[in-house]
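Handout, tutorial session.
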Amino acid sequence: MSIVGYARVSSSSQHLDLQLEQLADAGCEKVFSEKVTGTTRNDRQALAECLDWVREGDTLVVTRLDRLARSGRDLHDIIAQLSAKQVGFRCVQQGAVDTTTSMGKLILGILGAVAEFETDIRKERQREGIERAKAAGVYKGRQRTVDAEQVRSLRKQGLGATDIATKLGIARASVYRALKDDDVAFTS
């Protein structure tokens, strides 16, 4: 029976130090950590490894519920996966969240709904801010990272979309977007 920790921050400019310290204080013998958004389970390699690593009788510990999941759906899916493996779950800062008790399970459901609500509110504020900036003529959107001329040049050399994307280190969809007004058909 091991106490296993999971730590996550959303961006590479943020630090995991405080979470790692709290998980060590909670007795975690092994900790999985990563710097990736928590709004989805996609691309969360450390979380996948952690969920694969834990065994029956282990307990997964996080510092806060939002470090594990930002949506109620993801939270419930993760907890169901842990339960199926007979792995407990608890939060350091939200001590009442402990899936080994009925009350802990109830509180987990409530806090999961609150975490999802907070994410939705944050997204709404962000959209409102962008709309205000657009109305004021300040927001220009994300700058293009693909040089359309370079894409056209490679296409004229006979390269297909996949080869162009590989050569430039971009997605194939970006190649098509760069050429969308050129009425170019790809055969590869």
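The second record follows below. Compare its token runs with those of the first.
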Amino acid sequence: VAALSAVAFITKKDFSFLGPILTIGGFIALGVIVCSILFGFNLGTIFSGVMILFAAGSVLYSTSNILHQYRVDQHVAASLSLFASVALLFWYVLRLLMSLNRN
């Protein structure tokens, strides 16, 4: 998380182009999760790995939005957005480590 945020801070690049990519990826992930519930298959380590990449993109996008989009008086929304991205990344890293530990 620190490295991803450092990339956004150091480069000062606007990563807003990730927004539509993350939106489509989120809907695809949600569809896969719903199919997994309905049809009873396990998502596995590959899904966790893909979701770690998705969450890393989300952290980068959220940090970039904090720098370029949010106003100074929107600190609560900005911190909540970044926290949600960090929590998503943490959850899928935990899932990956737990699944690797089982094997």
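Points raised in discussion: Helices lie at 2-11, 18-39, 44-68, 75-102.
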